[in-house]
Amino acid sequence: MRLNLITLIPVIIVALVLIFGRFAWTPRHIAGLMILVPALVLLVMARLQLGDAFAVQAKAQKLVTHGLYSKIRNPIYVFGGLTIAGFFLFWNPWYLLVLLVLIPMQVVRARNEEKVLSQTFGEEYARYKAQTWF
Q1: 24-62 residue pLDDT tens
Q2: Which of 5, 21, 22, 94 has its CA 20 to 30 A from that of 29?
Q3: Exposure class string for 74-100: b at 16+ Cβ within 10 A, else e
């Protein structure tokens, strides 16, 4: 439960920035916000759906296949990247260059997790992988 509460920290930070920040609402700010808000909501949903199967390093405690995980194998990486992209677009578009490093790192992490899950869950994971994206 403690880790689930920690996932609310990004929501609180974004809310505080939007409430107390003074911005000229340009199309860039609006576009960033339109990416950021739904991606952040989906990121928090994915984290909550993962529950106690969440781990920083690849572990195969259980195979989560419900909710967002029924369509996307790695929704935390997908929506985490979109949340960061939306925030950077909102804050300073030059920071989007960070994604040139972040995205390949997330792909490598996803592949490492895939190996661990495949070794642990075998055919069950192969069927799940065939029905989902990334």
Answers
A1: 889 999 999 999 999 999 998 999 898 877 766 667 788
A2: 5
A3: bbbbbbbbbbbbbbbbbbeeeebeeee
Closest-CA residue to 94 (of 22, 28, 17) = 28
Q: How far apart are CA 18 and CA 73, in angstroms?
A: 31
pTM of the model as a whole = 0.84
Could you tell me where the DSSP H helices lie in 1-134?
Answer: 2-6, 8-20, 27-50, 75-91, 99-130
Judge contact between 81 and 99, C-beta under 8 A.
Answer: yes
Two structure tokens written together for 8: 């609310």
Residues of the chain with pLDDT under 70: 1-5, 55-58
Distance CA 43, CA 37 (A): 10
What amino acid occupies position 100?
Answer: L
Beta bridge partners of 72: 133
Look up residue 86 and give its amino acid: G
What are the C-alpha distances in Å from 49 to residues 29, 73, 124? 30, 12, 19
